[in-house]
């Protein structure tokens, strides 16, 4: 790419862009700089060079008015290529159909849509190299920006280039897109003087000095200010030309354009205003192809937008040849009779379609600022009629056109908020509901809509915003409900204050019940799930009893979902029976459900261990919600996806999901969820034998949760501690942790981990000589009906009964019931542990031949999962049957010096207490060392120590440092 002779002072940027365009592989690049600094000129330069080199060049521009419309920018960028989508696979076609309004249904995830975009551009670029140029990326809607960023990071290996220009003074979705960028700085003084001299050689010296001083190296100001001065002051520079304090550059440029706008006729100004308010294309000449936003304009009648008029001619020509590239982005609203605006430099005409386009975004801003409030409202009313078939766009214009309360407009905004929520736009929905509250005709409607806005803001991880919303209207009884909702969210998710949150929410529910004993109150649907969530995290029997009593007092006012949550979130042993069927029935209709209902139902499915069928839907929805949607609900979905991965043995993926959730929760200040993620990561680390990390995370969770009375998290910490101790073979410590959750022979009320840690308590009890307690716990699980509650609890109960049975026939029968259960394969870690312990029992009772059939699969699963502690013990047991494993035949893991000394003392007949006195260790520590020593030596009992130590001394001794 040859440097453009017309450009001044951009050698560095041009060299970087030349390397970008000439690179062998596809890549993305972001140009950053202030408004008017020359980003668009550089983009034009690259586009022209690419076109000369045979590239197909497609242009688009972000539009501020469309920044809250999901996928508006993506549609504009890809519209010329959409006919090519017909040749893609069904998944890609369905993704485009969903986001561009061709079919109904939820939009795909960022990953799914990003892959579809990559497939589309790669398909086109397979015939001719493709350059995508996106100007004003700071105005791109978040959904489009997420997809563009996803695709931009994955262009390597394709002939596709992506160039994005963004303003550095405005937060941009591309600030965190992890794409390489180039800073376009203001021109140096010498270069600025050269540019001014080239374009305004006759400018008087005093005006030249003022222009250079006020422009500050901004090329757009250097080019436009001289003409502005000439038009207003005949080329002279009065003393107050720039004002006593120096007006900021954007305002100065807007004033300049404003002079031109003010000189237009009323009809043309009205047309310009409608174009500006309707999200007109905002680039300078050469900004890109015309197109409509996600969902289409849908307008009919005079002045309606015509989606894709320009894009149809900017696609791929015969044999992949580059089609003509429009030089400007046409406005969405089809302006008419605007030649006068073209003549004065406010508009340009797109050469391909003949559409009008604003010359620069600041033209649009000036048009809007110069219009009176009445003129703007009239334009919005006209545009609302143009877009009467587009729910979200019509509501936007109606809201802007309305001053006095209007219930019809408020309802239209509510409908738009619902539409946005279904599309993953919860953040936009909050704004629409807030405006709907302002336009409500009565206090009840205002309070309800503010409450809905606060509710969605809470789920969108905007806890502070939720509080501010309910504070805007402090009168009336209904405000207490909205306030309780916002305060409860903050108290629970940010502060972990379960007791005050429960007290306040329960009091408001009781008041609403007493105020409307027959008809109920809409806020019940918002408050009851929050009350149940608070009760779940508290895991306090007293709080749960009050919650259940309150639900009973409400009678038929409690919807089925709330009763389902109350049964499954509270105490699945006592209240979970009979809910698996309703969960599966409700899960069949998730497509049109809001994200918070999806997350809540999935939590119920997790407690009943039927989450697996819901997981694909969760994975699709979570990507959408984490961008611009219900982020807090997305955090819950990440937890559930992680837990299901842990259950299935997909531990690497579960680790990544947990870390992603933790990062997101920390960023948004959701301390409760952050500690929940740490607890799950601790449990996973313990399962993998990473006991130091597990205990570190466990300590952090316990220190935060226990003082606050968050029993749900304290139990997770205890569970992680028990698992870590079991992994190390420290069964006494594991038993003590298990006792912190529940006592043998019972399942502590409202302790959700009580049933889930059934196998942990049984294993720890058996290994510490507490066979009676282990048996009592297994029988209690059977008598409590755990096998009927969930598939996982069925496997655990049968396994526990097999391990604790006194009769060998009963043990074999119960093990068979566990192994043959239809869901056994979904819980490989638990089944391998059961197989290991049952195989050990069989080896001792029947010999090695029968035991091998049980132990060999256990070894394979535990090694594949990476459950190092259990895998070592399983290999030792298998070696004891006469099968060589990785740790046998000279391949035994060496003992440390301390471990060998302990082994020698134990082989000599000393007790753990006696060994501890000699080694200055506690008996429990000695016991833990011995449990690690046995697998290393390939033995399973203390009696075999002497033979093992004398048979292979070279394999067990660690050289002493000289």
Plain-language structure description:
The chain is mainly alpha-helical. It has 48 helices and seven strands. Among the domains are: 11-183, 3-Layer(aba) Sandwich (Rossmann fold), CATH 3.40.50; 189-246; 391-495; 897-956, Winged helix-like DNA-binding domain superfamily/Winged helix DNA-binding domain (Arc Repressor Mutant, subunit A), CATH 1.10.10. A hairpin with a 6-residue loop joins strand 6 and strand 7. Helix 5 (110-125) packs across helix 6 (142-152). The longest helix has 19 residues, at 828-846. The radius of gyration is 34 Å and the shape is elongated. The model is unreliable at 235-250, 280-330, 475-479 and 953-962 (pLDDT under 50).
List how many beta strands DSSP finds. 7
Mean pLDDT equals 82
Q: Biggest sheet, open or closed, and with what strands and sense?
A: 5 strands, parallel
Whole-angstrom Rg:
34 Å
Low-pLDDT runs: 235-250, 280-330, 475-479, 953-962
Strand content: under 5%
Secondary-structure arrangement, i.e. CATH architecture of the domain at 11-183: 3-Layer(aba) Sandwich
Name of the level-1 CATH class of the domain at 11-183: Alpha Beta
Please state how the strands of the largest beta sheet are arranged side by side: 2-3-4-1-5
Global geometry = elongated
């Amino acid at each position: 790419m040859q440097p453009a002779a017309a450009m001044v002072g951009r050698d560095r940027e041009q060299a970087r862009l030349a390397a970008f365009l000439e690179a062998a592989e596809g890549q993305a690049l972001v140009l950053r700089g202030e408004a008017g600094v020359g980003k668009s000129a550089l983009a034009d330069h690259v586009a022209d060079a690419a076109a000369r080199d045979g590239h197909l060049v497609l242009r688009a521009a972000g539009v501020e008015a469309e920044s809250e419309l999901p996928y508006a920018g993506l549609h504009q960028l890809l519209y010329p290529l959409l006919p090519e989508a017909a040749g893609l696979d069904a998944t890609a076609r369905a993704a485009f159909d969903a986001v561009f309004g061709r079919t109904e249904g939820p939009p795909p995830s960022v990953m799914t849509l990003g892959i579809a975009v990559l497939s589309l551009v790669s398909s086109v670029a397979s015939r001719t190299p493709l350059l995508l140029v996106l100007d004003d990326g700071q105005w791109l809607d978040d959904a489009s920006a997420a997809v563009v960023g996803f695709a931009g990071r994955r262009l390597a290996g394709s002939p596709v280039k992506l160039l994005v220009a963004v303003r550095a003074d405005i937060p941009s979705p591309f600030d965190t897109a992890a794409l390489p960028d180039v800073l376009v700085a203001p021109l140096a003084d010498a270069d600025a003087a050269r540019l001014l001299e080239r374009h305004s050689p006759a400018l008087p010296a005093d005006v030249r000095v003022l222009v250079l001083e006020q422009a500050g190296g901004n090329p757009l100001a250097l080019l436009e200010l001289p003409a502005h001065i000439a038009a207003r002051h005949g080329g002279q520079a009065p003393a107050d030309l720039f004002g006593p304090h120096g007006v900021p550059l954007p305002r100065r440029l807007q004033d300049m354009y404003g002079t031109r706008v003010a000189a237009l006729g009323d009809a043309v100004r009205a047309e310009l205003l409608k174009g500006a308010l309707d999200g007109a294309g905002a680039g300078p000449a050469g900004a890109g192809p015309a197109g409509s936003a996600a969902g289409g304009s849908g307008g009919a009648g005079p002045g309606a937008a015509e989606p894709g008029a320009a894009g149809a001619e900017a696609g791929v020509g015969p044999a992949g040849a580059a089609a003509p590239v429009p030089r400007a982005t046409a406005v969405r609203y089809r302006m008419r009779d605007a030649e006068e605006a073209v003549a004065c430099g406010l508009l340009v005409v797109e050469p391909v379609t003949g559409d009008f386009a604003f010359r620069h975004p600041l033209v649009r801003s000036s048009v809007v600022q110069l219009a009176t409030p009445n003129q703007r409202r009239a334009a919005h009313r006209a545009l609302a009629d143009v877009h009467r078939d587009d729910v979200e766009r019509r509501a936007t214009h109606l809201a802007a056109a309305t001053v006095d309360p209007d219930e019809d407009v408020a309802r239209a905004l509510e409908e738009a908020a619902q539409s946005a929520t279904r599309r993953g736009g919860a953040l936009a929905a909050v704004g629409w509901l807030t405006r709907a509250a302002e336009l409500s005709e009565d206090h009840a409607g205002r309070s309800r809509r503010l409450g809905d806005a606060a509710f969605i803001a809470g789920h969108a991880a905007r806890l502070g915003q939720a509080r501010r919303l309910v504070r805007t209207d402090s009168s009336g009884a209904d405000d207490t409900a909205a306030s309780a909702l916002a305060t409860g969210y903050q108290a629970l998710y940010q502060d972990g204050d379960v007791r005050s949150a429960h007290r306040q929410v329960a009091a408001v529910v009781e008041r609403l019940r007493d105020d409307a004993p027959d008809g109920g109150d809409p806020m019940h649907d918002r408050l009851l799930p929050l009350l149940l969530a608070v009760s779940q995290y508290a895991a306090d029997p007293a709080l749960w009893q009050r919650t259940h009593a309150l639900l009973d007092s409400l009678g038929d006012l409690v919807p089925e979902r709330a009763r389902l949550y109350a049964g499954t979130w509270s105490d699945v042993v006592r209240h979970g029976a009979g809910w698996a069927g309703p969960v599966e029935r409700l899960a069949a209709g998730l497509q049109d459900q809001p994200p918070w209902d999806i997350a809540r139902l999935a939590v119920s499915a997790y407690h009943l261990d039927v989450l697996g069928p819901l997981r694909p839907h969760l994975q699709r929805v979570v990507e959408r919600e984490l961008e611009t949607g219900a982020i807090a609900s997305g955090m819950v979905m990440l937890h559930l996806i992680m837990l299901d991965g842990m259950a299935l043995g997909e531990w690497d993926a579960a680790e990544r999901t947990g870390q992603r959730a933790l990062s997101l929760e920390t960023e948004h200040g959701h301390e409760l969820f952050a500690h929940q993620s740490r607890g799950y990561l601790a449990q996973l680390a313990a399962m993998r034998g990473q006991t130091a990390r597990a205990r570190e995370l466990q300590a952090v969770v316990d220190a935060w949760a226990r003082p606050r009375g968050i029993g749900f998290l304290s139990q997770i910490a205890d569970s992680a501690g028990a698992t870590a101790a079991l992994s190390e073979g420290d069964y006494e410590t594991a038993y003590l942790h298990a006792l912190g959750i529940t006592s043998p022979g019972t399942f502590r009320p409202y302790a959700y981990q009580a049933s889930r840690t059934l196998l942990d308590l049984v294993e720890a009890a058996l290994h510490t000589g507490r066979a009676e307690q282990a048996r009592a716990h297994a029988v209690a699980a059977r008598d409590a009906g755990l096998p009927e509650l969930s598939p996982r609890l069925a496997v655990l109960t049968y396994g526990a009964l097999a391990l604790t049975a006194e009769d060998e026939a009963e043990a074999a029968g119960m093990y068979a019931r566990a192994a043959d259960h239809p869901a056994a394969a979904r819980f490989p870690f638990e089944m391998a542990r059961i197989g290991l312990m049952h195989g050990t029992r069989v080896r001792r009772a029947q010999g090695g031949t029968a035991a091998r059939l049980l132990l060999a699969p256990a070894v394979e699963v535990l090694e594949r999962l990476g459950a190092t502690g259990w895998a070592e013990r399983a290999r030792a047991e298998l070696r004891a049957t006469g099968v060589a494993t990785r740790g046998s035949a000279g391949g035994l893991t060496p003992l440390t010096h301390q471990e060998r000394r302990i082994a020698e003392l134990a082989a000599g007949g000393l007790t753990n207490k006696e060994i501890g006195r000699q080694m200055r260790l506690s008996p429990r520590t000695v016991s833990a060392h011995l449990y690690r020593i046995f697998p290393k030596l390939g033995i399973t009992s203390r009696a075999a120590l002497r033979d093992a130590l004398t048979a292979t001394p070279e394999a067990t001794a660690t050289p002493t440092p000289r």
